[in-house]
């Protein structure tokens, strides 16, 4: 397996290059001018001490209002970035026309979500409200999620490593959600190859031939050209470098005709040929050694920000520094519509204050969804295997009664005698899926009032009875568990169960605030954590969440789109995982769930074949009326013919044994 050779210039070479043309270097500033700017910045900062007492002069009220407005504005900007995180975590999102827009595109038919209160009582969302949300999710087109499991077909003369393929999938997810990002892998892990694989995907699979541009240090240009020829020879590249006369020829004879995919050039050439570069609408702008734009007032940084771009990707081998202004510059480049005023930034923060640590942490939190960084020590360790075990369970007596009631309510439709409207079929499917999870998802099913939290929560659901037996064994053996579920109200029931059993837990769903999300994740991953269970709604617990401290995943139910379930599993099965990850998928036999899982597995196999053939997965294939009717009918005779509980005594020892066996 061939790795990428990433040629790195020495500090001496870089220094020589910069000294050769100090005026051409983007970061160069005469000492006198630099000192003057620093004094001006300190003056601004000292004039806005957010923690100093207000003056008693008449202007005090105005100063107080000014300070409050600045703090409010900063909080507002941080909250706006949560929208981008939402796009990353929602697999149903379509690519916005621009990655810088804050509102979902008009062709994305999303209804307003109801936010439930944060109280710990069950049923925070009403049944009717959740039904509407679930139907809304199902109304959406089944959006394809491109995910390479193996080396992309267009990468030649070697194979990408597993972590590089994961990096490619991460960059594709950013593109599909219209978001810019930073690939910050440690030096030598193949950022060049991963970038080439992304551009190959754009040109050869997304039919976006260009124009794309890569801006890199002068000393690495030949390496970039060579790596393109080696790994993806079907891409046409042009390297803009050389004397003024030679550049003029390249521009007129090669660049302007447009018969190419990628231009590779240096920082210096960007400064000298900015007029030419500003003529293009760049689809992907890639900047290698991204720390060169950390000073937003440098010439290079100013010019690059003037380029018309659809997507931006920064490459850096160095970790982000705890420097407020450098972090701001990166945010400004990635999200210019949100973080657009460096002057305001200087006024907001007095860098001599103790609150700096909190501010740095907040900016890191904002950047985290847009940044991927792996270290050699992490990727050199082979990722432990992942083992999935399907656990087939029966319906409880109460579930069987509700399942029968749902089918009988629309018996003419089930028998094919009545009119079969698609929304009616979809609603029947949704109600049957709720019944498979827990009958308490239906108003009036739970005994009470008074409502009690005890064994009946487990006894009345086949899946809960399996959890009731499985979780104590997992806890006893020292495992930590992620539980994924499609339905928010099912998480309410699971939460009550954990409280009853005194399991320490965290919970994350679509209504969890961005700041709280990260706090819960950090709390669960802490070496001193006492949290045993982390329960997540499947679609809210997608990309950007690292829960590798857990080694067991329980899929309480299955998504229509198998890629969504795979992304959920990847929260634990990722770099940093030291143990084999066991995935237990709960399926109620002789119900719609069996058919949903069968359909998802078939789709997964077909998608893999399609992607390897170099075609895009059909993103418009939705479940048809006949297929839905077939799912509804599946197992109906078995349910009708049974009068008692259909649950069986699950052999937990046998289930755990299957989880330990190798494929």
Automatic annotation (TrEMBL):
Residues 466-617 form the Helicase C-terminal domain. Residues 1-62, 93-131 are annotated as: Disordered. InterPro entries: Helicase_ATP-bd (IPR014001), Helicase_C-like (IPR001650), Isw1/2_DEXHc (IPR044754), P-loop_NTPase (IPR027417), SNF2-like_sf (IPR038718), SNF2/RAD54-like_C (IPR049730), SNF2_N (IPR000330). Signal peptide: none annotated. Residues 111-123 have a biased composition (Basic residues). It comes from the Eukaryota. It is found in: Nucleus. Residues 45-54 have a biased composition (Polar residues). GO terms for biological process: nucleosome organization. Keywords: Hydrolase, Nucleus. It holds the Pfam family Helicase_C. One of its GO terms (cellular component) is chromatin. Residues 172-337 form the Helicase ATP-binding domain. One of its GO terms (molecular function) is ATP binding. Belongs to the SNF2/RAD54 helicase family. ISWI subfamily. PANTHER family: CHROMODOMAIN-HELICASE-DNA-BINDING PROTEIN 3-RELATED-RELATED, SWI_SNF-RELATED MATRIX-ASSOCIATED ACTIN-DEPENDENT REGULATOR OF CHROMATIN SUBFAMILY A MEMBER 5. This is SWI/SNF-related matrix-associated actin-dependent regulator of chromatin subfamily A member 5.
């Amino acid at each position: 397996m061939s790795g990428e050779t990433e040629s790195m210039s020495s500090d001496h070479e870089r220094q020589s290059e910069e000294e050769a043309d100090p005026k051409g270097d983007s970061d160069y500033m005469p000492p006198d001018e630099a000192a003057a700017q620093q004094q001006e910045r300190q003056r601004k900062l000292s004039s806005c001490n957010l923690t100093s007492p207000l003056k008693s002069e008449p202007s005090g009220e105005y100063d107080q209002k000014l300070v409050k407005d600045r703090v409010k504005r900063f909080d507002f900007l941080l909250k706006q970035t949560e929208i981008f995180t939402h796009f990353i975590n929602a697999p149903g999102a379509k690519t916005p026309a621009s990655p810088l827009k804050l509102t979902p595109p008009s062709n994305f038919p999303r209804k307003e979500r109801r936010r439930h209160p944060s109280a710990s009582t069950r049923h925070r969302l009403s049944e009717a409200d959740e039904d509407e949300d679930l139907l809304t999710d199902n109304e959406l087109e089944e959006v394809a999620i491109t995910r390479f499991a193996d080396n992309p077909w267009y990468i030649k003369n070697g194979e990408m490593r597993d972590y590089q393929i994961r990096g490619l999938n991460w960059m594709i997810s950013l593109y599909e959600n219209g978001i810019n990002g930073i690939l910050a892998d440690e030096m030598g892990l193949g950022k060049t190859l991963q970038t080439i694989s992304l551009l190959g995907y754009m040109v050869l699979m997304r039919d976006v031939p260009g124009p794309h541009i890569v801006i890199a240090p002068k000393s690495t240009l030949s390496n970039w050209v060579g790596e393109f020829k080696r790994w993806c020879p079907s891409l046409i590249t042009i390297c803009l470098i050389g004397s003024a006369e030679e550049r003029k020829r390249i521009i007129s004879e090669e660049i302007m005709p447009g018969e190419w995919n990628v231009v590779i050039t240096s920082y210096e050439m960007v400064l000298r040929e900015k007029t030419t570069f500003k003529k293009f609408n760049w689809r992907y702008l890639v900047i290698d050694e991204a720390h060169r734009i950390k000073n937003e007032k440098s010439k290079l940084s100013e010019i690059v920000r003037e380029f018309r771009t659809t997507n931006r990707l920064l490459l850096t081998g160095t970790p982000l520094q705890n420097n407020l202004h450098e972090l701001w510059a990166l945010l400004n480049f990635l999200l210019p519509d949100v973080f657009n005023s460096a002057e305001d930034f200087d006024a907001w923060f007095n860098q001599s204050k103790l609150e700096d640590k909190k501010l740095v942490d907040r900016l890191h939190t904002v950047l985290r969804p847009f940044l991927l960084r792996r270290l050699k020590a992490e990727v050199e360790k082979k990722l432990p295997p992942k083992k999935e075990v399907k656990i087939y369970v029966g319906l409880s007596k109460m579930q069987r009664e509700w399942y029968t009631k749902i089918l009988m309510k629309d018996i003419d439709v089930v028998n094919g005698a009545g009119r079969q409207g698609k929304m009616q079929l979809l609603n029947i499917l949704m109600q049957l899926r709720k019944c498979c999870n827990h009958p308490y998802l239906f108003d009036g099913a739970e005994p009470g009032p008074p409502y009690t939290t005890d064994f009946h929560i487990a006894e009345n659901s086949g899946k809960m009875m399996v959890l009731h037996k499985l979780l104590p064994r997992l806890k006893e053996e020292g495992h930590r568990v992620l539980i994924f579920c499609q339905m928010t109200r099912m998480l309410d029931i699971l939460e009550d169960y954990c409280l009853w059993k005194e399991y320490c837990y965290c919970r994350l769903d679509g209504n969890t605030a961005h700041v709280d999300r990260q706090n819960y994740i950090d709390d669960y991953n802490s070496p001193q954590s006492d949290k045993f269970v982390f329960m997540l709604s499947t679609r809210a617990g997608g990309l950007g969440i690292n829960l590798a401290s857990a080694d067991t995943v329980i899929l309480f139910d299955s998504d229509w789109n198998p890629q969504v379930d795979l992304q959920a599993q990847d929260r634990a099965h990722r770099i940093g995982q030291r143990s084999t990850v066991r995935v237990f998928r709960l399926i109620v036999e002789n119900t719609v769930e069996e058919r949903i899982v069968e359909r998802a597995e078939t789709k997964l196999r077909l998608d893999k074949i399609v992607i390897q053939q170099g075609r895009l997965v059909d993103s418009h294939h939705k479940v048809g009326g006949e297929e839905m009717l077939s799912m509804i009918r599946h197992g109906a005779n078995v349910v009708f013919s049974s009068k008692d509980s259909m649950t069986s005594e699950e052999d937990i020892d046998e289930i755990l044994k299957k989880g330990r066996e190798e494929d």
